[in-house]
Every structure is written in structure tokens, then in C-alpha cells.
Amino acid sequence: MSIAQAIKELKNELPSTVKLVAVSKFHPSELIREAYDAGQRIFGESRPQELYKKTGELPSDIEWHFIGHLQTNKLKFVLPYVSLIHSVDSKRLLYEISRYAGSHNLSVRVLLEVHIATEQTKQGFSKEELFELLDEISRQTLPGVKICGLMGMASFVDDKVQIRGEFETLASLFSQIKEKYGDSLAYFTELSMGMSEDYPVAVECGSTMVRIGTRIFGARTY
């Protein structure tokens, strides 16, 4: 299946309320251009230098999302170029983003990454850490940052019941946060969950944004 065909099928399949993030990490600009020519505009990258390089090679109307683990010493390669960071996984990273954004007159949209999987290698806040952070933020301003929702990755297993349970946990957290913090999180609208293997379940559980790479681009090329 061609990249254009894959994108067309996905866009026909996904509800209009769900955004498609084409995960282009590890794929060359030529393949991203094929997806762009097929009408795709949102692309997800996970390595700062690779993202920075591609922004100079590809059309300026692409909406870049950063979806990987972000180190604080790499902010300059990411923050000026992205529309959304999916993977804010610590209080320290969030505050460093705020400091950088404030000093460079940027407004950075972020999602807070929640650990919902069984694998300990995955990043993210626990439920307790998440509410502790949001309680703190609700009592002060965080310059240069708009918290726009949550992101999570389900366990890499074949058990669809387990995957659904993890997505439902994240969706429940999303609803609890909206109810508790209300107007103090005015931009809190996005729930990023679901990848090539599990996105149909994620959509059923309320995802507003799916991150799909392999189904569009195939296996990584470098």
C-alpha cells in the first residue's frame, strides 16, 4: 500500500473529532513529502536534531509535533518549531520549557504524559504526581506554556482487554482533571493515545489524537 493510500484509508476511518499525527521519526524527508502531497499536515518526530533538520527541508505549513522523550538541553532544537509537545513527563521538564518559552517570547502547547502501561521503561507521571503538579500550577501562573491535555502509551501486548483498560484509565483521568480544574486549564482539550497497533481501541475510549507511523510509512528506513 502506498503512503497516499494509507493516509486516505485512515482519514476515512477516523472520526472527524480525531486528529491524525503521522509519525515520521526515522523516515527521510522524501517520504514525508509523499504524505504531505497526499494532504497530511501533522507529523510527529522524536529526536530533536532530526526534527530541526526536517523543518528546514520541508514546507513551512507543516504542523510538527514532538512525541519523544525530551531532554532539557535540547529545547532549542524543538520549542521554536513545534505546534505541540506530547511528551512532558516530569515537573522539571515542564518548568524548563516555561523558562525557555518565557525568555524567548514563545507560547508552547504541551500534553502531560501519564504512565499507564505495565512496562516500567515507559515514561510519565503517576496519577498522584499528576494531581500534585496540577494543584501546584493552579495556584500560580506558568509563563509561556499552555497545558492542552494528556498523552499515554498502552502496554505493548496482544491483550486487547488490558489495552482497553489502560486507555480507559487515561480517559477517566482526563475527565477528572477537566472537572476538578475547570477554567484554570482553559486549553485542556486533547487526549493523545493510540498508535498503529491499538488506535481503534483508543478512539473508542475517547482519543482525540492518534500517533500512527508504521501503517503509513512502513518499517523505519534508518
Automatic annotation (TrEMBL):
SUPFAM superfamilies: PLP-binding barrel
Alphabetical keyword list: Pyridoxal phosphate
GO molecular function (one): pyridoxal phosphate binding
The Alanine racemase N-terminal domain, residue ranges: 3-220
The organism's place on the tree of life at top rank: Bacteria
Modified sites of kind N6-(pyridoxal phosphate)lysine: K25
Cofactor: pyridoxal 5'-phosphate
Task of the protein: Pyridoxal 5'-phosphate (PLP)-binding protein, which is involved in PLP homeostasis.
Entry similarity comment: Belongs to the pyridoxal phosphate-binding protein YggS/PROSC family.
PANTHER family registered for this protein in UniProt: PROLINE SYNTHETASE CO-TRANSCRIBED BACTERIAL HOMOLOG PROTEIN, PYRIDOXAL PHOSPHATE HOMEOSTASIS PROTEIN
Protein name, per record: Pyridoxal phosphate homeostasis protein
The species this protein was found in: Candidatus Egerieousia excrementavium
